Amino acid sequence: MASIREYHRPASLDGVLTLLGREGSVVIGGGTVVTTQPGDDPVEVVDLQALGLDTIVSENGSVTIGATARLQDVVESADVPDLLAGAARREAPNTIRNAATVGGAVATGDPDSGFLAALLVHDAVVHVAGPAGSIDVQLPDLLADRSLLTGGIITGVTTGTGGQAAWAATGRTPADVPIVAAYARIGPDGAVRLALTGVAASPVLVEPDGIAQLDPAADFRGSAAYRKALAGVLAGRVLEEVAS
What we know:
Layout: E1 4-8, H1 13-20, E2 25-28, E3 43-47, E4 56-59, E5 62-66, H2 71-76, H3 82-91, H4 94-97, H5 102-108, H6 114-121, E6 125-130, E7 133-138, H7 139-144, E8 153-160, E9 164-170, E10 180-186, E11 192-197, E12 204-205, H8 224-243
Parallel strand pairs: 1-3, 2-3
Antiparallel strand pairs: 4-5, 5-8, 6-7, 6-8, 9-10, 10-11, 11-12
C-alpha cells in the first residue's frame, strides 16, 4: 500500500491542476484507488471532494454525472438509466459503492467493469479538465489512450438516456466477477450499441457482427477460445432481447 507524504483538498480546479504538476501527486475522489495502490513510494494526495463534482443532472435526453458522485449515488438516482444504475449496483459491495466514485471507475478502466460497459452503450462522453483547458472525450477513446488524462482530471461523464437496453453475464458463481459480460442498447436513434467485458484490456464497444475478430487473453477463469465463444453467446442473447 502506498504511504501518503502530503494531503491536499483544494477548493478550486486551478488549485487541483497546480498540485498535479508536482511529482508523485495522485488524484483521489473516494480514496479506493490510493488505498489499494501497490508500491512503497510515498504519494502526494490531491482530494477532489471540495470541488462540488458530485451532482447528477438530467437535461434534454441526457444525464451528466459528476466525477465525485459515488457509485451508490448512481444506484439511487431516478435520473440515471436503469441499465447504468443496475451496473453500478453490481460493480462492488455496498461499502465500496459508498466510497468509490464515477470518475475513479472511468480512470481505472477495469477490464471486467460492467459499469463501464453500460456507459459505453449509453454513448458516454467524458469531461476532462487539464492545463490546456477542458476537453470532451468519447469514452472508447479515453479507455484506449489514458494519456488523455495526463496532468488533468475527469470532472464528469454525460450519457444518453432512453432506448431499450439489456445485459447478460457468465461467472464461475453468481457472486463472482463475470468472466464475460455483454451489454446492448438500441438508442432513440435506432442504432445498436454492444459492449463486452472480459475480452480486452478494458470494456469495449463491438460491432454486432464483429465477435469473430476478438482476441481475448486467457487466464485461470477461461481460455481465449472459451471467452470468445462466451462473448458470442451472450452478445446474441442481449441483442435479441433489445430487438424484441
